[in-house]
Please model this.
Amino acid sequence: MVQDMVGQKRPMVQTEQLIKRFGQNMVLNGVDFRVERGQTVVVIGPSGSGKTTLLRCLNHLEKIDGGRIYIDGELIGYREHNGRLIEDSDANIARQRAQIGFVFQRFNLFAHMTALENIIEAPIHVLRQPKDEVVARARKLLAKVGLSEKEHAYPHKLSGGQQQRVAIARALAMQPKLMLFDEATSALDPELVGEVLKVMRDLAEEGMTMVVVTHEMGFARDVADHVVFMEKAQIAEQGPPEQIFGDCLNDRTREFLGKVL
Ligand code: ADP
Model:
């Protein structure tokens, strides 16, 4: 019981003084980032401010140069040894990644597999779940993203918006505890953006924990529980959308929003 209460209170994501450099370029300069369980946090900010890198660090697609990342209380990508961090085993990193869904700007579907085959691939081969169970779940997910009739379609027969919805279903098929979206609608024709945002909004409303990097300020305003504004490798300002889109106090946030709204 006590354990459960502690588990409920623990943030889903917590970074402590996260540092990431590419060569001389300081890309994340001591970032403390937190996402509560069930929350949708939207990360906004100018190009090059470190938003994508922050997401990629969260599931260890990038190695970090300092600080700590915890997902659901578990140190990600590393283990501590005499106060120092040593990169974790490939098997452990793969296990951690399997709990975190990642949706990329480019949909990255397997071109030689149908929509359904794309969705069932990882649960069968990574999680080794029984095929009939996985297929049944995949069909439910296809229905959820509005693509039941596209079960047998190959990616090249699908629009960009449909492909991205399959990519979201594929990530959800792993039953992740956290979903990360990296500019998931930026590569889409404008008329296809809405159908993907709707799927993301539904997920948020169902209580999925989500971190969303996006330029869609309407989505941030309507769906986010918390908005993080990044600038120059740091979190420059954060708060509820009413604060960030209302009378944000930080001049730089105001200037950025003045350009994009
Ligand atoms: P954002 O998502 O806010 O546009 P990014 O996280 O993509 O910002 O990039 C932050 C900085 O890191 C930029 O200066 C970018 O050029 C640099 N960067 C990102 N990825 C790499 C990489 N793989 N190698 C070298 N530099 C990179």
